[in-house]
Amino acid sequence: MNLLENLKLLKKDAGNTPPELAPMIVSWTETSDTISRRFQFQPNGQLSVKVVNDSRPVIHKISESFVNTFLPSGYPYSVNEGYLRYTQFRALQHFSSAALSVLSTQSLLFAAGLRPTPAQATAVSWILKDGMQHAGKLICSNLGARMDSEPKRWRVFADVLYDFGTSLEVLSPLCPQLFLEMAGLGNFAKGMATVAARATRLPIYSSFAKEGNLSDLYAKGEAISTVFNVLGLGAGIQLVSTVCSSMQGKVVVGSFLSAIHVYSTYEEMRSAPINTLNPQRTAMIIEDFLKTGRVSSPADLRYREDLMFPGRVIKDAGNVKVGRNLHKVMKPSRLKQLKQILPDEKFVLNFGNKSTDLVLEQNASGEDALRGWLVAAYASQAANGELEMVEEAYEKMNAVMPTLVSELQAKGWHTDRFLDGTGCRFGF
């Protein structure tokens, strides 16, 4: 091949060179605070930002704004089951409570003005009345451990106390000579109610925090409370100037608002899936496990909890009672025999005619309580001697315990602690 042919081949190859690739455009869309923005890198490396027009109907924009303001981020996937029902009744509870507070405040002011005493004495009585509220707070603060064990029950009890105190204030104009006594007792009850309501708020919110978003839940809950408190105050002001201008009207409307208030709180608490172990929930878990072989979730048990009388024993769960003092449960000789059978366990059992006492060590966890409860339940089904039935029940418990604990944890239960609320535990 001569030089001319080589030059022709090179020219042909140069004509077949692929064209340069067009620069790749990188773009994405981000949505934050209901505003969508389109980001794009230009060929020169600069980043351009453009707000994307929102063509949705106005009603959709309003509903999304409402959700972002009053419901947690990521709702409904970021909360546990029952949160919407809880929020609905919480709003109704705050509305009725605020309206009721307007009636009670007007009645107190009216009763104070009816007293045939100097203004200075009336001012002193008003201050003493407020002091009774602080006394109620101090007394109720000693019951914190019981509130940890049964937060739903104490939350309902708090609103019953609050309505009792409010009722005394509404009725105070009927006997102005007893203003200090009635207003003081009413404020005492409301002080206890305030502590109980605030102390149980965190366990309730924690039961809904599916993704550790406790602060978000608390903030959105306070937003709902604020809005419906304001609406309730407005409704209360309208009521006292119309149908509640007389004492008969206050009694009728006040009773109606109080009933709505307590009912809303009751339904609100029933919707909360508390996921900590206490005596009542543990008994129901053991009962379902022995009957059906399945483990109930917190959502499964929420409507079955007894909020009024949680201390009842369940026959199919061994009739177990928790919280009695060890020296009242068994004699030292009986304790020695039992510890020989269960040397490494952090619980002791005493089998009575009608119930079985379960006493835990100071550092016993929720799993230790479950172990003791299972032994008691299996032993109650046995027909042989007491020590023999404990040994047999202990073997059955060890066989099923790993499965039970793993399924409980998978369902969202906290098995690392047991909240009995009494503080009656022992330590060797």
UniProtKB/TrEMBL annotation:
<comment type="similarity">
    <text>Belongs to the RUS1 family.</text>
</comment>
<dbReference type="Pfam" id="PF04884">
    <property type="entry name" value="UVB_sens_prot"/>
</dbReference>
<dbReference type="GO" id="GO:0009926">
    <property type="term" value="P:auxin polar transport"/>
</dbReference>
<dbReference type="InterPro" id="IPR006968">
    <property type="entry name" value="RUS_fam"/>
</dbReference>
<dbReference type="GO" id="GO:0009941">
    <property type="term" value="C:chloroplast envelope"/>
</dbReference>
<feature type="domain" description="Protein root UVB sensitive/RUS">
    <location>
        <begin position="60"/>
        <end position="292"/>
    </location>
</feature>
<dbReference type="InterPro" id="IPR054549">
    <property type="entry name" value="UVB_sens_RUS_dom"/>
</dbReference>
<protein>
    <recommendedName>
        <fullName>Protein root UVB sensitive/RUS domain-containing protein</fullName>
    </recommendedName>
</protein>
<dbReference type="GO" id="GO:0010224">
    <property type="term" value="P:response to UV-B"/>
</dbReference>
